[in-house]
Amino acid sequence: MRYGFVIDLKRCYGCYSCQVACKAANNTPRGVDFARCLQGETGTYPNALRQMLPTLCMQCAEPECLKVCPTGATKQDEAGIVTVDKKLCMGCKYCMMACPYGQRHSVPGWSTYFPDAEGELDFYQTYAKGRWEERNGYGIATKCDFCKDRVKEGKKPACAEACPAKARYFGDLDDPESEVSILIKRERGFQLNPEFGTEPSVYYLPAR
Fold first, then answer.
1. Number of domains forming the structure of the chain
2. Residues whose CB falls within 8 Å of the CB of residue 117, separated by 6 or more in sequence, listed in order
3. Does a structural domain hold residue 2?
4. CATH code of residue 183
5. Which of 31, 57, 25 is nearest to 109 (CA)?
6. Which of 123, 157, 201, 205 could lock onto 8 through a cystine, CB 3.0 to 4.6 A?
7. Does residue 1 belong to any structural domain of this protein?
C-alpha cells in the first residue's frame, strides 16, 4: 500500500477550505500552513485565467528529506508516509533545505493568530498551543503527514473531507482498481516536477 492524493485542478476554485481545515486539524501557529493554496494566472488578456494550485507534503517515494537526516528522525512507514520523530530531531534543518517542494517547517515559538491583541491567549489558542507543543514542539522539523491518525481511524485527511468542490481524492496508489489510480490513468494525472526524481505521491489532474 502507498497512500496518495489526486487533486483535480478543474474543480478547485480557491475557497481555501482545505487550508483552513488543515490548520484546525493540526493546530498550526500563525504563518505555518501544511496545506497551502497557491494562485497564479495562465494565458494572456483577454483570455487570462486564474488558476489555483493546492499544495501539501508530496510524501515522496524517494524523499530527499529522509536521505539527509543525520539522526534518523525522519522516517517513512510501509504506506509511504514520511514523518518526523520529535525526540530524535535536533533541529539542523537539513531536511528543510533538501525538500524541493518547500513543505518542511520549523517553529521557533508559538505565534498568536492575533498579534495586536493584548493579554493572555484566548481559550482556543491556549488549546491549540498545548496540542502543538504536545505533538510538534519548537525548533525542530515538522510537516504534513496526510492526517495519519485520521486515516488509521478510517477517515479521510482533513483537507480532503473539507473540500466542497470534491477536488481531492485520497487512496492507495498501489491498487490499480482504486479511485486515485483510475483517475491518474484516465485523466492524465501528473506529478509536480517529476524531474526531481523523488516520485511524489500527490498527482494533479489537468486544469483544462
1. 1
2. none
3. no
4. 3.30.70.20
5. 31
6. 205
7. no
Which cell goes with 84? 518526523
Question: Does residue 5 lie in a domain region?
Answer: no
Domain limits for position 40 = 10-205
The conformational region for residue 84 under phi > 0 = left, psi -120 to 50 = alpha, else beta, is beta
- Averaged over 105-122, what is the pLDDT? 90
Report the pLDDT value the prediction gives residue 207, as an integer from 0 to 100. 87
For residue 106, what are the β-bridge partners? Answer: 141
Is residue 188 in a domain? yes
- 190: DSSP letter: B
Helix, strand, coil percentages for the chain (3-state, nearest 5): 25, 20, 55
pLDDT digit string, tens, across residues 164-186: 999 999 999 999 999 999 999 99
Backbone angles phi, psi at 103, to 5 degrees: -105, 20
- In 3D space, the residue among 150, 173, 152 whose CA is nearest the CA of residue 161 turns out to be 150
